[in-house]
Amino acid sequence: MIKITKPRLNFWQIWNMNVGFFGIQFSFGLQQTAVNPIFSFLGAHHDELPLLNLAGPVTGLLIQPIIGAISDRTWSPKWGGRRKPFFLIGAILASLCLFAFPFSPELWFAVGLLWILDAGNNTAMEPYRAFVGDKLPDEQLTFGYQMQSLFVGAGITLANFSLFLFQDWFSVPAEATGLCSTGAEAVTSIPKWVYYSFFLGAIASIGTVMWSVWKTPEIPPSDEELEEITEFNKGKPAPLIQILSVLLVIFSVPVALGYVIGKMVPSLFEDINLWVIIVLIIAFLWLFILYRIIKKNPDKPAIKKLGDVLNPFVEAAEAIGEMPGFLWKLAAVYFFQWYALFVYWQFITPMLRNSLYGISNSDNEKFEGIMEACKEGAVIGAEDMAFAQNVQSLAEQALAQTGLMNGTYNLVTMLVALALVPIASRIGSKLVYVLCLFLTGIAMLSMPYISNQWLLLAPMVLFGIGWAAMMGIPYAMVSKVIPEERRGVYMGIVNMMIVIPMLIQTVSFGPIIKNVLDNNAVNAIVFGGVFFVIAGFLAMRLNISKD
């Protein structure tokens, strides 16, 4: 295929193109900072947090490659082009979930909403990554992705600072909440000031994406490419039907078999981590079987129809088989990098409860016991009530402190994202990436040992520099080694390299923190810092051929 000569864009064109990423990342910022504390407010324990975040890696693993493959073969002028219809639909879905999330009455409801929210965010995320690559010539790719990194920082910064500021402005003293009133559920309810951050995020998510859709036209395909797209999609179901069909086929057999196995061995339902691992193993075996059936029987009508439905999955599988060696090396870096990041997002607030505010595991257990007794209508003594009110207040302060810290590192990301462009041009993208991974590792290793809330912002500066590099430089490097005509599916595969470590973390870290790390959030953060250092050493192997 002849490579398209793309016109250079000016600063404001690249700015408008990336504005929508602000809203998407506002949503992700709330997920990173507020969702796990909300789970804790609704009664989740430390060792349950990783598995409750299973939605992120599973939806990312499935949705992004599927959406990437479909968007590569889509052109819909009526709905905006190739990528824009997908990230517009994703933003609408995410906005609706953000409005509903703070009203979650029970833990299971919040977990279910997280699955839908993640599906919406992932539907928007992958086409947006490919959108930048579609529009910009090679010499502007680093600038384009670092501009996207700037909006990553801006969106998550506002999300986190809103939590910190709203807690300061609108929080109600614990004594006034009536922990054991007729609304006893208020003991573990989501604080009202958290609602405002989610409402702001819902508006930002849809508003900024609509701005980018309005201001940035997509490059139309050539007549030859349009003919290929039309021919490829002839006889295939509509994109929405393809997506739903793929998900149904992928999930139905593993979940059904997992349920049967669980009924045969009831103890598996008590060890939910093990049950999820079994279901995931069945799912990967099932996908492999489907792929082999489709590839070995291309002439059978029924199998061909199944192949048409599952084409995005098949195309992603074939692209993995043809993946450049650089991407395999990046996958090794990403395993340790994203495993560590997921540990950070899950355990930074529990760490602060312990290291900064002095709430121990035994304090948490006592608090939960008081709350259970309260819900059952027992009479709570004044001393126990004062203890519970104090723990509730400190827990809210820990969430607000997390917002301040995460907002700080994302503010730094916003400020340094574009500054990394000339530095990467001078000393090389690889070296910048390696140094930033080491800085992030140092930041995580130092956090648990700082007992002043303002001094805790110092490691967040290092973390922010690292996050700026992680959210921009690898994508610019990848864009130089993947085929232009398969950019969407390969960007989806890069996201698979992110979510597979997260998936492994969700099913492995619960037992690790419970049995190896003494169920201590401080130890969890140190563990993540070590993983960042390992990622830095592995990143030294990332070399791009000059061809």
TrEMBL record:
Gene Ontology MF term list: transmembrane transporter activity
Any one annotated GO CC term: membrane
Gene3D superfamilies xrefs: MFS general substrate transporter like domains
Compartments where found: Membrane
Mode of membrane association: Multi-pass membrane protein
Family annotation (SUPFAM superfamilies): MFS general substrate transporter (SSF103473)
Residue ranges annotated for the Major facilitator superfamily (MFS) profile domain, each copy included: 326-547
Superkingdom: Bacteria
Keyword Magnesium: no
Transmembrane segments annotated in the record for this chain: 12-31, 51-71, 83-101, 145-166, 240-262, 274-294, 326-347, 407-424, 431-450, 456-477, 489-509, 521-540
Database matches in InterPro entries: MFS, MFS_dom, MFS_trans_sf
Keywords, comma-separated and alphabetical: Membrane, Transmembrane, Transmembrane helix, Transport
Pfam families associated with the record: MFS_1
Listed name of the protein: Major Facilitator Superfamily protein
Organism: Flagellimonas flava
